[in-house]
Each structure stands twice: as structure tokens, then as C-alpha cells.
Amino acid sequence: MSRDARWKALLELLVERGRLDVEEAAAELEVSAATIRRDFDQLAEQQMLVRTRGGAVVHGVSYELPLRYKTARHASEKQRIAKAVADLIAPGEAVGLTGGTTTTEVARALAVRSDLASGSPALTVVTNALNIANELAVRPQFKIVVTGGVARPQSYELIGPLADGVLSQITIDVAVLGVVGFDVTHGAAAHDEAEAAINRLLCERAERVVVAADSSKLGHRAFARICAADAVNTLVTDTAADPEILHRFEEAGVQVVAV
After folding, report:
1. Beta strands across the sheet bearing 181-183
2. Are the CB atoms for 112 and 87 separated by under 8 Å?
3. pLDDT of amino acid 233
4. How far from chain centre, in Å, is Cα 156?
5. Do the strands 94-97 and 123-127 form a parallel or antiparallel pair, or are they unpaired?
6. pLDDT one-digit tens code per residue, 37-66
7. Model pTM?
């Protein structure tokens, strides 16, 4: 296992459990205790965790795993979801993409669609996510509109009043939201209130709203609300989702697509 893969696995375990012992982590990852100690020390230097005697704990009370460490989580589900979301978007439409691992996969799925290989433009993409803009900017048939703002390092998203200024001047056909949690009662949510504010404005400028969320996000809430469940037209998730939760979304008027 490479160092990057180990670090991703360690941070995921740490977020799930809150605390990890060296011996416990070594057994789970099938590497030596000395390797885990070195990994913990290096991650502590980057302020990704707090080193303790014999192990590590999460850094801070409220912890959000940075985007670059989340790409391996539910990867196959996210790719299926992304393709299904991309199929909902018609050539020539203007689509808004928020930041996140699932929306990044949606961008990649759009990039390889054969019917979007040409056009003027084949698609207009509005995003506040620097990584998504970077991946799609090499596609000359796509018109890429990037909001202004201050970069948030955890998600590569631009936030703040500069982003507000751009979004208030445009309208889009569909907004695709990546979320931390999506619940019938509490709606769609993010960790950060400034990020949620930009995502909310993107929804308000859209004709329809699609939430792209794997089953681990459903039935959960997070600190900052983006929008109510009844503001969402379509939820695209995976087949591991709880049928009762999906039924509650459908009762609330949300079209559910499980792939």
C-alpha cells in the first residue's frame, strides 16, 4: 500500500472512530507499527490529526476531511451516481456544479459524453470549485464560468461576497449539489456556512435542482443548511439507500433515482 493510500485510510478510520491506536491501525492496514507511528507523526505535522500517547485523535472538535483525502470513499457508487446525473443534463444547457467528490465525478462524466464532444457551446458549466474548473477548462466545447471568491482549502470551493456577485447576475438550467447530509426534515446541508450560502444561491438561480449523494449521506444532517428538501427536484443515489428514507423523499415530492 502506498503512503497516500495509507494516509487516506488512516484519516477515514480516524473520522469514523474519533481515535486510533497504533497497534489497531497497523492491524487494520496490515503494515508495521513503526510505519503507522511515522504516518501519525507526519500527519500531525500537517495538522491533520493530533498525536497522543500510543495513537492519534481527530484534529479539533468539528472535523471535515479535506477533499483530496475523500476521493476513495464510496468511489464506485459515486461514479454510478455521476453518470446518472450527467444523463439528466441536455446538450446546450447551463449547469451549476458545487464542489465535492461526487460533483467532480459528474464533471468527468459530462466530459466523456459523446453528444457533448462539439457545440458552441455544448454545455455551459458554472462552478465555484477550482478543481472542477481546472478539469473542464481543457474542453473547448464547454463554456466554463468560475465564480469569484476566497478559496476554501478543504473543498477547493470559492466562497464569500465575490462569488455572490457573479451568481446574482446569471440563471442556469440545473444545479447539481454535492452535500454532506440530506434529510427530509432538515434538507440538504454542508459543513461550512459560507459554502452552504453559495450553494443555496446556486439553487435559487436554477430552474431545477439535483442532489447527487451516495447512501451514506441520506437521513443525516450537518451544521449549515443549503436548502429544504422540497426545493430539490431530483435525488440521485445508490441502491444501498434505505428504502424507507427514499420513500419519505418521494412523499416530499422529490424524484428518486437509485443506481
Report:
1. 181-183, 187-190, 224-227
2. no
3. 98
4. 10
5. parallel
6. 999 999 888 777 889 999 998 765 444 555
7. 0.76
